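Thread: quick sanity check before group meeting

JM: Hey all, I'm pulling together slides for Thursday and realized we never actually wrote out the predicted structure for the chain we discussed last week. Dropping the sequence here so it's in one place. If anyone has concerns about the input, flag it before I start.
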Amino acid sequence: ICLVPVVIRDDTAAQVLAVSAILLISIVLLCLVRPWRNYLANIFDGAMTACILLVLDCGLVGGGYTASVVTTRVMSVLVVATFLGMWVGLVAWSVYKHLNPMDVYDMFFCHHKAGGAAQARLIKLMVVEQAGLRVFVD
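JM (edit): ok, ran it. Output follows.
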């Protein structure tokens, strides 16, 4: 982010677009990778990055900056294409998941009936919480 003003020198709108794109990519990667162990920490990290992006965009609108016609057109096309692409991708993924349900588990635990049930359930809870895998216990 700190190199954006160095690379793009004279066009404020293009700088804001570049920083916004970097922040959006970081939000998407955050959702995919989930770097924090705690689920709520990942949610807060994404929400805070989104708030930073919102403050950046509000500052651009309220700052009275002027942009060239070409930059405005490019920004508009990129924003509309990004939103349309995200919505089309979301709808396509939802339709795919609806038509191809997965009843597959990542792990299978089998335990001794008399003495291993509690340990198997404990291991299942730990694996589900820490690794996010789907576990079936017999």
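AS: nice. The mean pLDDT is 82. Residues 31 and 47 are 11 Å apart (CA to CA).
JM: adding both to the slides.
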